[in-house]
Amino acid sequence: MGQKRNAKLGKFSERAREEITFSEKLPTFEAMQSIEKSIRAYLLGFLVFEVLCFSFMSSGDRFVQMQWVNFHHSLWADYLFQGLSALAEIASPILIFGYFYWKKRSFAFPFLWSYAISTTIIQAAKHFLFPHALRPFAYFKSVPYAWHLVDGVFMNEYNSLPSGHTSAAWFMCFWLVLLSKSRWAAWFFALLAASVAYARVYLFQHFPLDTAVGAFIGTGTSLLVYYFFLLKPQKHD
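User: That's the sequence. What structure does it adopt?
Assistant: Structure tokens below.
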């Protein structure tokens, strides 16, 4: 009997140690208060972006929207927006996940969940909800207008809505804001994510609506994952 009792106590203490180790990996309550301020600033930046997007869309039809963006081009902008667009490709989330796993493991798997969920929603929307949504190059094929196309950029024609690059940018920047715990960093990363969105329109890959929806998906999924994986457990403690 004594041996069985000791074995049960040993298992209980081991489980207790695991729970303590896990709770230590979660941000402290004071840290969460600081993080919430940075997230509020980031979400405000997101709302500003959405308002600007829909205000711009209300100014004219798709041709007017794309004509305005396309008209304001230059060689330096071609290189700049190619680079910004590349930031939202697969290498960036892999690098960020690797950093989180190495330095901030409590963020690593929520980040991965956020990436998986947002990507699944984006791809489902592209291929099942809006499979016939044409990208600008295909949409304006019959329009007699000399569009500026950036050299070296492949012109996709289908699966325009929503923008996967924009979603990835807003989701990644959300977690970088969490890491920084700074409101100034929140505004910087919101501006960076918005710049990626503009780059997708500038490169003639998406319409402004595509980027607005992509930003909503990327930010929304990150916010939900943040709440259920980090904020809610912390409140229960």
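The two ends are 35 Å apart (CA to CA).
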